[in-house]
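Exercise 3.2. Students should predict the tertiary structure of the chain below and write it as structure tokens, then compare their answer with the key that follows.

Predict this chain's 3D structure.
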Amino acid sequence: MKFKNIPVYLLILTGAMLFTGCEGDFREKAIGSHGEVIVVMDSSNWQGPAAEAIRRTFGEYIMTLPQPEDKFDLKFVDFDTQSKLDHIKKMKNVIFAAPLDEETTVGRFVDNILSGEIKQQVRSGESFAFQLNNKWYRDQWTLFLSSTSQDSLAAKIRRNGEQYVQALVDKEIERWQENIYDRGEKFAVEDSLWQKHGWKIRVQHDYQLNVDTTNFVTLRRFLHDNDRWIWVWWKDDVSNLSYVDSAWINNMRDSLMEQYIQGTRDSSYVTTEYRRPVNTEVVELNGYYAWRTRGTWRMTSDFMGGPFINYTIYDDQTNRLFMVEFAQYAPKYDKRRFVRQFMAMAETFQSDSTWTMRRPEAVETKQTIQN
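Answer key:
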């Protein structure tokens, strides 16, 4: 099921530009850092309304981190030579923004890129944003923004830009998923979770299985300056979800962490930091109905803290309710990239649709009947 139908326009300008995926595409990969977005505008417009609208959407603060961080690192650039344009075309995330008929280098480039039909849609107000994947290089995300004036473009970005921000977040998570498993993963741990508990996530190669009970599991990747952990709780035979809301989710999280996610000092444990924003939203996760909760945690009786992201997931085929939480303590590092890595790992969650029939008590009952 899907909760948001995001209308992303795929602009096909010529046959040479049509690449439906990276399979069979032997071009070089785009370059650039995770989270970096190159915004191509005429330098005279960098402080104008359209640029400000881009900053307020793509550069908006993420408030559910220990220290607010921008959603993306924006770098505004202009070009006046072919070599500079060629370099821009190599970048991983690129936004070109210019009104129609703007007599600047960027304006003329955008005018040449857009077809007559597309420009008519822009003039009529029907469209203003056009996304292309893998336009010049593999693994590339490109967005063209245009309208009839700077003010009009700014208004459209403020009103409708969030869907394109989400599209870029989704692309970044896809990239992180490829990145975090490229060194390998714990297939034996994944198989054990599947066989023993009827669910699994892809486990990065350096996570270790710690607690493993009948309905609670923890995995940990410990380094002295970057401690990360995952915990999963689940409950069978859940047919009524009316009680599940943000308050219930956070109360349950806090109860479980007090019991299982403890500190080194006596009576210390991880709990939610409610003095900072804690946000819960309904999402679709890998085909499952889910609630996503983001915020920060703190250690009682200590000064430690960090970001967390929690998914409360319902499998309606087996009537099982899961909580999957990712958290980190890394005071020297920016946190945005790790939260997106956690989101990429969460996207790999799977629940066994046959678990109702093969869970231990069901197998024991079947054997008793047979005997």
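Discussion points: Residues 199 and 351 are 4 Å apart (CA to CA). The domain at 15-179 is CATH 3.30.379 (Chitobiase; domain 2).
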